[in-house]
């Protein structure tokens, strides 16, 4: 075979390879565009359904953790009072201050905090168990005990800003209203999702305790307590990973959850400014829409 014929065949072979590669990438690019188109249609469908639902909450934020993208938002960047949702970050920051197996006592001043959660003065608790019951029942005496140090709130605000909640303001560790006109903590709905994702990733064994309706825990002092979840719809949320409630007169009804939809995707949902009962009704509607879409 002449050199010229060999070169021509080699050239044709190379052209064939280039054409095959171009076709392959063209097909793959078409498939990618189709997938993106279908995903965008799915998100638009979700937005339409939530917009048309009778949601009482003033702010809603939905975030797809698995794909790191926002799905839905209504006033989701507006900073609002968050009530006891504040305890998500204050508990996470408090846990950073203790060794894993630390045991601490409930000070008598803690018992004077708003609400009776069954804890006893000088009762000794493992820090992890105290954190679980604090999140589950929104125990103000629990967070009072955990949140030690004169610079604690400074640490909480610094952490909030560091993880991306730039406009968050924590004036106390509980999120309770300071008075009739001033709330204890202000965060946007989208930033609550950010905080919830941070906390559950950092301490999954603590924060995932909030997916149960109740917990029976024994203190190191030997007393057994039964703690009820303030989220009364935990059994109605499929594949629940985390939840936290909040309510004050200024904040209204708040609720944040992380769950998995039927596609196995982790979804964070925060609602702010609903009513005491409306927060649960709002969340049920949103979860039912998100689960199968």
TrEMBL record:
GO terms for molecular function: serine-type D-Ala-D-Ala carboxypeptidase activity. One of its GO terms (biological process) is proteolysis. This is Peptidase S11 D-alanyl-D-alanine carboxypeptidase A N-terminal domain-containing protein. SUPFAM superfamilies: beta-lactamase/transpeptidase-like (SSF56601). It holds the Pfam family Peptidase_S11. Gene3D superfamilies: DD-peptidase/beta-lactamase superfamily. Residues 51-271 form the Peptidase S11 D-alanyl-D-alanine carboxypeptidase A N-terminal domain.
């Amino acid at each position: 075979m002449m050199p010229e014929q060999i070169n021509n065949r080699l050239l044709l072979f190379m052209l064939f390879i280039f054409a095959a590669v171009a076709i392959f990438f063209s097909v793959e690019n078409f498939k990618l565009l189709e997938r993106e188109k279908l995903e965008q249609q799915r998100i638009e469908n979700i937005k339409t359904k939530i917009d048309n639902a009778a949601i009482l909450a003033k702010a809603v934020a939905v975030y797809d953790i698995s794909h790191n993208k926002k799905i839905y938002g209504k006033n989701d960047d507006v900073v609002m009072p968050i009530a006891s949702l504040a305890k998500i970050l204050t508990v996470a920051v408090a846990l950073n201050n203790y060794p894993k197996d630390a045991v601490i006592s409930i000070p008598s001043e803690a018992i004077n905090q708003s609400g009776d959660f069954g804890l006893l003065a000088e009762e000794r608790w493992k820090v992890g168990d105290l954190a679980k019951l604090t999140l589950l029942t929104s125990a103000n005496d629990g967070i009072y005990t955990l949140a030690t140090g004169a610079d604690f709130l400074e640490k909480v605000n610094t952490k909030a800003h560091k993880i991306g909640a730039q406009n968050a303001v924590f004036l106390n560790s509980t999120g309770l209203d300071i008075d009739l006109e001033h709330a204890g903590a202000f965060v946007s709905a989208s930033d609550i999702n950010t905080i919830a994702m941070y906390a559950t990733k950092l301490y999954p064994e603590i924060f995932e305790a909030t997916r149960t309706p109740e917990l029976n825990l024994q203190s190191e002092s030997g007393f057994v307590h039964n703690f009820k979840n303030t989220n009364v719809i935990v059994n109605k949320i499929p594949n629940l990973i985390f939840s936290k409630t909040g309510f004050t007169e200024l904040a209204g009804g708040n609720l944040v959850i992380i769950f998995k939809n039927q596609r196995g995707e982790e979804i964070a949902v925060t609602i702010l400014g609903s009513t005491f009962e409306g927060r649960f009704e709002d969340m049920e509607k949103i979860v039912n829409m998100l689960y199968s879409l």
